[in-house]
Amino acid sequence: MATPHPLTTTASGADVRVRFCPSPTGLPHVGMVRTALYNWAYARHNGGKLIFRIEDTDAARDSEESFQQLVDALTWLKIDWDEGVQVGGPHEPYRQSQRHDIYRGVIEKLLASGALYESYSNAEEIDARNEANGRAKQLGYDNFDRDLTDEQKAAFREEGRQPALRLRVPDEDLTYVDLIRGEVTFPAGSFPDFVVVRPNGVPLYTFVNPVDDALMGITHVLRGEDLMPSTARQLALYAALIEAGVTTFVPRFAHMPLVLGETGNKKLSKRDPQADLFLHRDRGFIHEGLLNYLALLGWSIGPDRDIFSLDEFIAAFDIENVNPNPARFDQKKAESINGDHIRMLDVKDFAERTIPYLAAAGLFDEPTHEQLVLAFRAAPLVQERVQLLGEVPGMLGFLFTDEISYDADALKGLPANAAEVLEACIAALEPVTDFTPEKIQDALATALVDNLELKPRVAYGPPRVAITGRRISPPLFESMELIGKDVTLQRLAALAEMLTA
């Protein structure tokens, strides 16, 4: 039975070092955020460190805009890091594009140790040899160049060929113990010597990623299941890095489950709306609610419990307790959990978070003092009723406009005697001097429920539509108090007039 590398790290506690190392391509997506979250929580749980590194060696796809969006995403989510871009640390720089000299030094050490060798074979030659030897083409490179003589290398160079550099893969099984999936073995010969440096001298991602991990002392590599096949190459490379004196240990690996879309068994695509982190933010997710939900995509704090604080998450989280089975993104559950976290907010905090959404909806540009006071007074009326901050403008928009527009379904649901009800409301409220919710309710209950003998559900529908334009709104009597007696009477009269016109 194969055994893991004897120099696999035993780091724990404050010695734990994990990393989040995205490529700056496209918008941040929830699968990426789940990876960042688990790494962050594992570091915080252990008292270790999170390193934020940028893998920007693909000049054709990487962009500074995408990098700024990554930083914006982590900042909004309040996922902080101990070393890395914009923070610094002992292993600067933290962008691959700025570390070429460092990689060159490691390449020279591996050449000197014999771990790397020059390879001149091109694709056509590899295919021809495989065909001649009865070997399937899909097996790829046949390790032909491992033992080229100096004369053969010189002859290739005379032809004008530049060599790629390949890693000499050990001719033995490679085994590691995945912290989520248990023991995994890659049989000897299951993959050939692989290119780590192109003929133009540029090292490949499969080289620089584990080299950076080694140089930065990363003890635990926590990443997505889709990267699991590359672990075999990383184990082979780590053995060479240890032999060359570049590092002293092999990290522990853990491969997190895929996040699937809401239907089917396909990985959540970057193109799926559920994958777009900023779309969730724009719709009104708060970071506490979204992170709570993402934490559940592969992990559980306990049976029959879905709601927890970030502090509780950190205290309970262990990567070994992550479920290896795929997790499915459920938009409705995510929104429900977000609503629970909205209700856990201090009322003042909730009110402050609604202001950007009210502004984005065009209810005001720079809010005046009076508008801010109104928004803060109204916030408690809707905090229990919304799941997303983006729902607040629809609920409170009636407070910030002189022109009420009536929803079609609200008008459709009015009873036949709606105009009569509204006239009764006006008559009941005109004498009220102390315009408080209690006094408003007493007056309307007497006029509508007692005198007109209407059921409350029917009685308060017409005034609700008149005041807010909606069938569902914040509490009616408190809404009337907020807009004041004069505006209340004007709106009641306006709808009554429209219905009798």
UniProtKB/TrEMBL annotation:
<dbReference type="InterPro" id="IPR004527">
    <property type="entry name" value="Glu-tRNA-ligase_bac/mito"/>
</dbReference>
<dbReference type="InterPro" id="IPR049940">
    <property type="entry name" value="GluQ/Sye"/>
</dbReference>
<feature type="short sequence motif" description="'KMSKS' region">
    <location>
        <begin position="267"/>
        <end position="271"/>
    </location>
</feature>
<feature type="short sequence motif" description="'HIGH' region">
    <location>
        <begin position="22"/>
        <end position="32"/>
    </location>
</feature>
<keyword id="KW-0648">Protein biosynthesis</keyword>
<dbReference type="InterPro" id="IPR008925">
    <property type="entry name" value="aa_tRNA-synth_I_cd-bd_sf"/>
</dbReference>
<dbReference type="InterPro" id="IPR014729">
    <property type="entry name" value="Rossmann-like_a/b/a_fold"/>
</dbReference>
<dbReference type="GO" id="GO:0016874">
    <property type="term" value="F:ligase activity"/>
</dbReference>
<dbReference type="InterPro" id="IPR020751">
    <property type="entry name" value="aa-tRNA-synth_I_codon-bd_sub2"/>
</dbReference>
<dbReference type="InterPro" id="IPR045462">
    <property type="entry name" value="aa-tRNA-synth_I_cd-bd"/>
</dbReference>
<keyword id="KW-0436">Ligase</keyword>
<dbReference type="InterPro" id="IPR020058">
    <property type="entry name" value="Glu/Gln-tRNA-synth_Ib_cat-dom"/>
</dbReference>
<feature type="domain" description="Aminoacyl-tRNA synthetase class I anticodon-binding">
    <location>
        <begin position="350"/>
        <end position="494"/>
    </location>
</feature>
<keyword id="KW-0963">Cytoplasm</keyword>
<dbReference type="InterPro" id="IPR033910">
    <property type="entry name" value="GluRS_core"/>
</dbReference>
<comment type="similarity">
    <text>Belongs to the class-I aminoacyl-tRNA synthetase family. Glutamate--tRNA ligase type 1 subfamily.</text>
</comment>
<dbReference type="Pfam" id="PF19269">
    <property type="entry name" value="Anticodon_2"/>
</dbReference>
<comment type="subunit">
    <text>Monomer.</text>
</comment>
<keyword id="KW-0547">Nucleotide-binding</keyword>
<dbReference type="InterPro" id="IPR020061">
    <property type="entry name" value="Glu_tRNA_lig_a-bdl"/>
</dbReference>
<keyword id="KW-0030">Aminoacyl-tRNA synthetase</keyword>
<dbReference type="Pfam" id="PF00749">
    <property type="entry name" value="tRNA-synt_1c"/>
</dbReference>
<feature type="binding site">
    <location>
        <position position="270"/>
    </location>
    <ligand>
        <name>ATP</name>
    </ligand>
</feature>
<keyword id="KW-0067">ATP-binding</keyword>
<dbReference type="InterPro" id="IPR000924">
    <property type="entry name" value="Glu/Gln-tRNA-synth"/>
</dbReference>
<dbReference type="InterPro" id="IPR020752">
    <property type="entry name" value="Glu-tRNA-synth_I_codon-bd_sub1"/>
</dbReference>
<protein>
    <recommendedName>
        <fullName>Glutamate--tRNA ligase</fullName>
        <ecNumber>6.1.1.17</ecNumber>
    </recommendedName>
</protein>
<comment type="function">
    <text>Catalyzes the attachment of glutamate to tRNA(Glu) in a two-step reaction: glutamate is first activated by ATP to form Glu-AMP and then transferred to the acceptor end of tRNA(Glu).</text>
</comment>
<feature type="domain" description="Glutamyl/glutaminyl-tRNA synthetase class Ib catalytic">
    <location>
        <begin position="16"/>
        <end position="333"/>
    </location>
</feature>
